[in-house]
């Protein structure tokens, strides 16, 4: 699902909200999550998961074109850990389907 699809879905599910208001709500939520991660904070959405940052140590990499060694500096990368409820919903077994029978020749 893309951001525009999310906005369209939320707008359809909440007809009392104007589309520009839904766009502002979604943009504000994403901006707040991004700002918190940039500060080094952890963002937890109960039942969904937690966003945090992990630090990658400096290392020596290789330029794939030339094969030359390149120093890669340390950096922080975003990390998402799904919550228990989200994992359970995703891994829930599908309901059994009724067998498909061939039409009888009569």
UniProtKB/TrEMBL annotation:
<feature type="region of interest" description="Disordered">
    <location>
        <begin position="87"/>
        <end position="106"/>
    </location>
</feature>
<feature type="compositionally biased region" description="Low complexity">
    <location>
        <begin position="93"/>
        <end position="106"/>
    </location>
</feature>
<dbReference type="GO" id="GO:0006355">
    <property type="term" value="P:regulation of DNA-templated transcription"/>
</dbReference>
<dbReference type="GO" id="GO:0006417">
    <property type="term" value="P:regulation of translation"/>
</dbReference>
<dbReference type="GO" id="GO:0005694">
    <property type="term" value="C:chromosome"/>
</dbReference>
<dbReference type="InterPro" id="IPR005685">
    <property type="entry name" value="IHF_beta"/>
</dbReference>
<comment type="function">
    <text>This protein is one of the two subunits of integration host factor, a specific DNA-binding protein that functions in genetic recombination as well as in transcriptional and translational control.</text>
</comment>
<dbReference type="GO" id="GO:0030527">
    <property type="term" value="F:structural constituent of chromatin"/>
</dbReference>
<dbReference type="InterPro" id="IPR010992">
    <property type="entry name" value="IHF-like_DNA-bd_dom_sf"/>
</dbReference>
<keyword id="KW-0810">Translation regulation</keyword>
<keyword id="KW-0238">DNA-binding</keyword>
<dbReference type="GO" id="GO:0005829">
    <property type="term" value="C:cytosol"/>
</dbReference>
<dbReference type="Pfam" id="PF00216">
    <property type="entry name" value="Bac_DNA_binding"/>
</dbReference>
<dbReference type="InterPro" id="IPR020816">
    <property type="entry name" value="Histone-like_DNA-bd_CS"/>
</dbReference>
<keyword id="KW-0804">Transcription</keyword>
<dbReference type="GO" id="GO:0003677">
    <property type="term" value="F:DNA binding"/>
</dbReference>
<comment type="similarity">
    <text>Belongs to the bacterial histone-like protein family.</text>
</comment>
<comment type="subunit">
    <text>Heterodimer of an alpha and a beta chain.</text>
</comment>
<keyword id="KW-0233">DNA recombination</keyword>
<dbReference type="InterPro" id="IPR000119">
    <property type="entry name" value="Hist_DNA-bd"/>
</dbReference>
<protein>
    <recommendedName>
        <fullName>Integration host factor subunit beta</fullName>
    </recommendedName>
</protein>
<keyword id="KW-0805">Transcription regulation</keyword>
<dbReference type="GO" id="GO:0006310">
    <property type="term" value="P:DNA recombination"/>
</dbReference>
């Amino acid at each position: 699902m893309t951001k525009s699809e999310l906005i369209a879905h939320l707008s359809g599910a909440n007809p009392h909200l104007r589309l520009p208001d839904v766009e502002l709500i979604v943009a504000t939520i994403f901006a707040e999550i991004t700002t918190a991660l940039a500060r080094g904070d952890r963002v937890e959405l109960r039942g969904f998961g937690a966003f945090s940052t992990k630090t990658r140590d400096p290392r020596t990499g290789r330029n794939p074109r030339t094969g030359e060694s390149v120093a890669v500096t340390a950096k922080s990368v975003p990390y998402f850990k799904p919550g228990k409820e989200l994992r359970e919903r995703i891994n829930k077994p599908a309901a059994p389907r009724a067998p498909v029978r061939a039409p009888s020749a009569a």
